[in-house]
Structures are given as C-alpha cells and as structure tokens.
Amino acid sequence: MTYLSDKLLRISDVSERLRISKSTIYKWVKDGRFPEPIILGDGASRWVEGEINEWLENRPRGVQGD
User: Fold this and answer.
1) Which contacts qualify for 9-16: CB closer than 8 Å, 24 or more apart?
2) Whose CA is closest to 35, among 12, 1, 64, 7?
3) Which distant-in-sequence residues (6+ apart) come within 8 Å of 10 by Cβ?
4) Could you tell me the strand order of the sheet in which 44-48 lies?
5) SS in 3 state form for 1-61?
6) Digit-coded pLDDT (tens) for 16-49
7) Contact (Cβ atoms closer than 8 angstroms) between residue 20 and residue 29
8) What pLDDT does 57 receive?
9) C-alpha triplet 62, 58, 39: angle, nearest 5°
10) If pLDDT is split at 50, 70 and 90, which confidence band does 3 have?
11) Model-level pTM greater than 0.85?
12) Residues near 39 by Cβ (< 8 Å), separated by ≥ 6?
C-alpha cells in the first residue's frame, strides 16, 4: 500500500540499495517482477520506498534448488 509519507526513491537509490544494476531494475519492471515507478514527468520517475520494502519482505529466503 502506498502512503503519502513514503519516501520517493530515484533509480540510483534503488540500484544502490539492492546492489543491482539500473538495467536489471528496468528489466524486472518490464517483466512484472518489480514494482513500477511513479512517473513524475519530463523523464523523471521515482519508486515508492514502502513498495520496495514490501517487495523485499516477500522475497524467498535461503538456498534455492536446482
């Protein structure tokens, strides 16, 4: 759920936080595997911090099988 108090993150913030490339984030968004950004206009987009936190909380943990 998105709240007005949630911080809006730039792609560089999300990339640094997750330690993955910006292109991976955009690919995951395109594939429906990652939250979509809010488009602010003029090429500016931001991700809602609460949505990123929720996505992280729902990721599998531990060793994955073959």
Assistant:
1) 9/46, 9/47, 9/48, 9/49, 9/52, 10/46, 11/37, 11/45, 11/47, 13/47, 14/47, 14/52
2) 1
3) 46
4) 8-9, 44-48, 38-41
5) CCCCCCCEECHHHHHHHHCCCHHHHHHHHHCCCCCCCEEEECCEEEEEHHHHHHHHHCCCC
6) 999 999 999 999 999 999 999 999 999 999 999 9
7) no
8) 94
9) 135
10) low
11) no
12) 45
18 C-beta neighbours (distance < 10 Å), count: 15
Q: Which two three-digit tokens encode residue 16?
A: 């640094």
Residues in the chain: 66
Give the single-character DSSP code of 63. Answer: -
Q: Which residue has the tokens 């690919």?
A: 27
Contact 38, 8 (CB under 8 A): yes
